[in-house]
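Please, does this match?
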Amino acid sequence: MFPMLNTYDTIRESLHFNKFTVGDLLFVEYKCPIEHDAAGVWTPMDYFVHVLSGRKTWRTTDGTWVAERGQTLFFKKGAAIVYQDFREDFCVMVFFVSDNFIRDVVKEVAGHLAPQGESLRKGVIPVNGDVTLAAYFQSMLAYFTGPAKPADTLLTLKLKELIASILLGGNNAELSAYFQSLLKSDAPSLSQIMEANFCYNLTLADFARLSHRSLSTFKRDFRKYYHQSPGKWLMQKRLDYAAVLLKNPGLNVSEVAFDCGFEDLSHFSRAFKDKFGISPAQYRKEITTGGEL
């Protein structure tokens, strides 16, 4: 199993990316350096991905998302498995944005916003393009290819422009609803974070950071909500998910273990047998032969 890569920290700390930083905001343009067929990634920040060339596929717990040249996706904080397409170099602009920044923009334009319904819980939201957004991304690309870094104030204004365009443009109601929903709470929903990311090989510290809590506060809030420890809940949730995936004959046992967040096959097999009384292979055999479990 490969480790889950924190893309925000990796890009921010690396000297090898064409990037701009303003506080916790991060703007980057790059050709994808990953050479493996698939990779696990996560980030504690929401982010926009605008594809300049190539094609890439992301798989999350609620769907599979494909983006190619000229298309834009918005990712909520969390994890995904990324699948490479090597037929053409994958070049992209990515803008990482904090919840507080989005909240501030929503407050600034609140008087011009139409009421929105409940924000859907999908972790990835396609951004519907229009002439305004196309011009926006072209202007951002010019900054990355220019001789000097733009002023911090200008970069901040450009990100505000993107968010305000989505809020006011009327072409991205789902994303606008999500932006407005951030005003309802100072921290992400613990249950939404856990349900969307339980099957990834993340540490408790990673989950705490995803939920914008200290580790001690995360553990306390988790026990208050779920009435058990995070470690125990994660194990049971992953094993229950494994039992579902084993019904899919297209996945071998190793793939099921990986897709459920286990570090190695032997650990998964032991844990599965402890819960269900039989090995994953035996469980699958019982399912396929119609036996009783």
In short: The longest strand covers residues 46-53. DSSP finds twelve helices and eleven strands in the chain. The chain has a mean pLDDT of 92.
